[in-house]
């Protein structure tokens, strides 16, 4: 599928739940969250009907997101079923890692093609403060298990919060020194509670890493679906990546759509646009579904307007991280 700016759209980020077992300060309020009722969340059958029809229109890559996707009971069978959809070439997952020790073997057997694990700090007390309820040792155990069972294409995602110290940046980067994984620093985007949080730029972190480890050499190949640009450091097994939607806008290469847990198609992370697909999915109305998808993609904006407008009022967990 091509949008009106001739961009090929072949990637969907599919949220399977708006619930999460953490309460990160830049993502959710401490109290008062109202989650979707079970009947409002897309069922496995609705998701598969959606993916089968998106695949017929050229979608090849699926990223499973949330909330926290590993809180959904049917997650492994769902991944297996999506992997079997004709035309789908890659299924990957993003997770906070809290339950990864439990699921790593099953995800490997389900032939997951890649996994992103969020780790914002390696300080246990700071981790608890950021997530309000999380234990860092559980996430690190999950990361270790993912490496042990041989899950492919493991990436650690770190939000470039303004509080990250030079030592904290280097500690996280060193995860890829001895492990066959990649570390990405993600610019804090002004969505939901993130609008009031200070962030660091790619240049801030780049400078810290070069001061400590020497020259970062550009790595010209893609490592997965995302827009990250990667660099090599001498003596490191993995790569260091940066995702900088504000500082280095990559919208001209945007190849994705998003589906929220309740079936809203979004064509831009920032914009409050898209359309509701739930009725078409519940009634298995293929004609209506494809008409809605085609129409939405033709309205896909040229670029985000993070710095000029309010955008979507939903929290990141409600959109799909």
Topology, element by element:
Blueprint: E1 11-15, H1 44-56, E2 61-65, H2 75-83, E3 90-95, H3 100-109, E4 114-118, H4 124-131, H5 136-149, E5 154-159, H6 166-173, H7 175-178, E6 182-186, H8 202-213, E7 217-219, E8 229-232, E9 240-243, E10 256-259, E11 264-266, E12 275-276, H9 278-282, H10 286-298, H11 316-319
Parallel strand pairs: 1-2, 1-10, 2-3, 3-4, 4-5, 5-6, 6-9
Antiparallel strand pairs: 7-8, 8-9, 10-11, 11-12
Describe the strand arrangement of the main beta sheet, using strand numbers: 7-8-9-6-5-4-3-2-1-10-11-12
Which band does the percent of strand residues land in?
15-25%
Q: Over the alpha carbons, how many angstroms does the gyration radius reach?
A: 19 Å
Shape: globular
What gap, in angstroms, lies between the N and C termini?
23 Å
Count of DSSP strands: 12
CATH topology: TIM Barrel
Q: Please write the CATH class name.
A: Alpha Beta
Instruction: State the order of secondary-structure elements, H for helix, E for strand.
Output: EHEHEHEHHEHHEHEEEEEEHHH
In CATH terms, the superfamily is Aldolase class I
- Overall pLDDT level: 92
Cofactor: [4Fe-4S] cluster
Pfam families: Mob_synth_C, Radical_SAM
GO molecular function: 4 iron, 4 sulfur cluster binding; cyclic pyranopterin monophosphate synthase activity; GTP 3',8'-cyclase activity; GTP binding; metal ion binding; S-adenosyl-L-methionine binding
Catalytic activity: GTP + AH2 + S-adenosyl-L-methionine = (8S)-3',8-cyclo-7,8-dihydroguanosine 5'-triphosphate + 5'-deoxyadenosine + L-methionine + A + H(+)
Describe this protein's structure.
By secondary structure, the chain is α/β, with parallel strands linked by helices. The protein has helices spanning 44-56, 75-83, 100-109, 124-131, 136-149, 166-173, 175-178, 202-213, 278-282, 286-298, 316-319, and strands spanning 11-15, 61-65, 90-95, 114-118, 154-159, 182-186, 217-219, 229-232, 240-243, 256-259, 264-266, 275-276. Strands 7-8-9-6-5-4-3-2-1-10-11-12 form a twelve-stranded mixed beta sheet, covered by helices on one side. α3 (100-109) packs parallel to α5 (136-149) and α6 (166-173) packs across α8. The longest helix has 14 residues, at 136-149. The model has no long low-confidence stretch (mean pLDDT 92).
């Amino acid at each position: 599928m091509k949008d009106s700016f001739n961009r090929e759209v072949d990637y969907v980020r599919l949220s399977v739940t708006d619930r999460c077992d953490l309460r990160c300060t830049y993502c959710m309020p401490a109290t008062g969250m109202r989650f979707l009722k079970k009947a409002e969340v897309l069922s496995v059958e609705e998701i598969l009907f959606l993916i089968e029809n998106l695949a017929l229109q050229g979608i090849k890559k699926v990223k499973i997101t949330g909330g926290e996707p590993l809180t959904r009971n049917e997650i492994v069978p769902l991944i297996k079923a999506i992997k079997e959809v004709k035309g789908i070439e890659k299924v990957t997952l993003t997770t906070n890692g809290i339950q990864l020790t439990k699921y790593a073997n099953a995800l490997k057997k389900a032939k997951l093609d890649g996994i992103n694990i969020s780790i914002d700090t390696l300080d246990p007390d700071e981790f608890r403060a950021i997530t309000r309820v999380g234990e860092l040792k559980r996430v690190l155990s999950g990361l270790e298990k993912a490496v042990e069972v041989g899950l492919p294409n493991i990436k650690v995602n770190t939000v470039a919060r303004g509080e990250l110290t030079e030592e904290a940046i280097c500690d996280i980067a060193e995860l890829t020194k001895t492990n066959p994984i990649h570390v990405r620093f993600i610019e804090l985007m002004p969505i939901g509670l993130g609008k009031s949080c200070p962030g660091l730029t790619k240049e801030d972190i780049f400078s810290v890493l070069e001061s400590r480890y020497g020259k970062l050499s550009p790595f010209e190949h893609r490592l997965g679906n995302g827009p990250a640009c990667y660099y090599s450091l001498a003596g490191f097994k993995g790569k260091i990546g940066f995702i900088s939607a504000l500082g280095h806008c990559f919208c001209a290469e945007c190849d994705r759509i998003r589906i929220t847990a309740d079936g809203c198609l979004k064509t831009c992370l920032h914009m409050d646009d898209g359309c509701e697909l739930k009725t078409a999915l519940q009634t298995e109305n293929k004609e209506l579904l494809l008409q809605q998808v085609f129409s939405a993609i033709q309205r896909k904006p040229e670029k985000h307007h993070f710095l000029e407008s309010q955008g979507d009022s939903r929290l990141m967990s409600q959109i799909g991280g």
